[in-house]
Structures are given as structure tokens and as C-alpha cells.
């Protein structure tokens, strides 16, 4: 199952309403057999430009980052479900590398010295 990051921009909502939106989004992911690893809040920010969603213009939004494993054939259904949600302004899926590839990239190769330094023949003669 490929690993994805879901960048979610929601309307500028109060905390209780925001909790409901996140629960609804997580429930949509779980219905499509996704495995959520982490949900990270990046706070409320001004949007880089005005965005229109459901016939309403937005200038501020809450940013969230979902880290999840999602089946490839379920991805279009999740996109469609999130596009119908009136509280979500924008969603973006970014494919990530597998954990195993990241581990291999982080582990440095260790070189060991198998033989000690041997003096050249002429230097051994002088000693």
C-alpha cells in the first residue's frame, strides 16, 4: 500500500467545528481502508491567494497534514468524497517514499580497515 501525505486546507473554523471536520475526514479515509499514521496541524494561516470553494471565496484557512497508507484504487473515491465536503477548501495528495527506502538513505556505509599499515621494504631495513 503506497504512503501518501494529504495536505488539507479547511475553512477558518472554531475548534469544536474543526474537530468535527477532522473526524469526518478520518472516517472517510477509514471507510476506504486507509491507515492513518499521523495528523499534524500547521495552524490557521492566510491563504496565498483567494480560493473559491462551494461558491464562497476564502482568504484564511486551517492547514492539516495527514500521513497515511492508501490503496491506489481507493484514491479517486477519497478525492471525490473530500471534494463534496463543504468545509474543505482544498486537498492535495503527495506520494511519499516507503519507510524502508528512507532508512537505507539515512544509514551511512561503515568502512573497516582490514589490514594494518605495512612499512615499505626500504623503511623496514633502516630500522
UniProtKB/TrEMBL annotation:
It comes from the Eukaryota. GO terms for biological process: translation. This is Small ribosomal subunit protein bS6m. Coiled coil: none annotated. Keywords: Ribonucleoprotein, Ribosomal protein. It comes from Hydra vulgaris. The keyword Ribonucleoprotein applies. Transmembrane segments: none annotated. Pfam families: Ribosomal_S6 (PF01250). GO terms for molecular function: small ribosomal subunit rRNA binding; structural constituent of ribosome. Belongs to the bacterial ribosomal protein bS6 family. GO terms for cellular component: mitochondrial small ribosomal subunit. PANTHER family: MITOCHONDRIAL 28S RIBOSOMAL PROTEIN S6, SMALL RIBOSOMAL SUBUNIT PROTEIN BS6M. The keyword Ribonucleoprotein applies.
Amino acid at each position: 500500500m503506497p504512503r501518501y501525505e494529504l495536505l488539507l486546507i479547511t475553512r477558518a473554523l472554531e475548534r469544536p467545528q474543526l474537530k468535527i471536520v477532522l473526524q469526518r475526514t478520518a472516517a472517510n479515509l477509514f471507510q476506504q481502508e486507509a491507515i492513518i499514521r499521523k495528523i499534524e496541524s500547521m495552524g490557521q494561516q492566510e491563504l496565498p491567494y483567494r480560493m473559491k470553494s462551494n461558491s464562497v471565496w476564502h482568504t484564511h484557512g486551517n492547514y492539516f497534514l495527514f500521513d497515511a497508507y492508501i490503496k491506489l484504487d481507493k484514491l479517486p473515491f477519497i478525492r471525490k468524497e473530500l471534494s463534496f465536503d463543504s468545509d474543505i477548501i482544498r486537498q492535495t495528495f503527495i506520494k511519499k517514499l516507503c519507510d524502508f527506502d528512507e532508512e537505507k538513505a539515512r544509514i551511512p556505509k561503515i568502512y573497516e580497515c582490514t589490514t594494518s599499515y605495512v612499512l615499505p621494504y626500504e623503511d623496514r631495513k633502516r630500522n
